[in-house]
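Materials and Methods. Structural model of Nickel import system ATP-binding protein NikD. The 333-residue sequence of Nickel import system ATP-binding protein NikD from Natronosporangium hydrolyticum was retrieved and submitted for structure prediction as follows.
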Amino acid sequence: MTAPSADPLAVTGLSVRFQTRAGPVAALTEIDLRLPAGEFLVVVGESGSGKSVLASAILRALPANTDLAGTISVAGHDLATLDRAALDRFRRSHLAYIPQSPATALNPVRRVGSLLLELARARGLSPAAARVTLRQALAELDLDLDRIARRYPHQLSGGMQQRVLNALAMVGDPALVIADEPTTGLDADLVDVTAAQLRQLTGRGAGVLVITHDLRLAQRLGGRLALLYGGYLVESSPTEEFFAAPAHPYGDGLLAALPERGGLPIPGQPVELTAPPPGCPFEPRCELRIPDCAGPVPTPRPVPDQPDRHVRCYLPAPPMVPATAHRSTDAAR
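The predicted structure was written out as tokens:
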């Protein structure tokens, strides 16, 4: 049952296919990721890039029409070897998940306090320790346990529901925390608080996987960044180096689309996974494409002189320049 790696998360060769009436849909293809203890791994990409599918695969929460290949190790355990009961116990004790839709994550017929205490106790805390830990975590997000304990989830605003789930992730020192769009519905001040709270988790030794479309949050967290497009991991880089000079043209386009960097949209439309292009999924939108890009999807390779960065790109030298440097307003129209 124990995998070679005891990192909070190690993903090797992960591919996810959905069998549909229209044929198979490749949601993820040959994903390799590693998240050490006490670090951030921030997964970014447009809607439909495969970010949430990745989280569902790690949680073993994919639908029945799924074909999955590859291995996923959490805290040194291959989750595919666990039966349902053992998997549930393992997730409660080793893994915390902050879902994208807080309204559907909280049991609507359970009072918030009862639900939180039950989940905290499932992570090994005594009733007294659970109350102390929950009270502290909620207070850091401007929530009072006594005021919300007797409320039902629908009696909390969306932002309050999100904060409740963020606080719950602090309980029990899980090895791996998966935060799927953890700043949904939060104002700027609470985004800063949430980022600080996630940093506390890494400070306790947890590996924190953050799935987000918010590039500003990604930059604020630091750590390592994984860029997904069309189900492929097209770039893996230290976050600081990505924002200084992305290695893949898609990353260059994402940064150039930020208002503070010119607000130039990426030409074309996101890839349709039911009818992907024959080559690189970004090829139809790429301003730097060459004939090779229409062939087989390139394999990941190290960025020249930067062995801690990898990119799926045929270009002899990826952009590696500040975003917008090679783009013009006319080209973006």
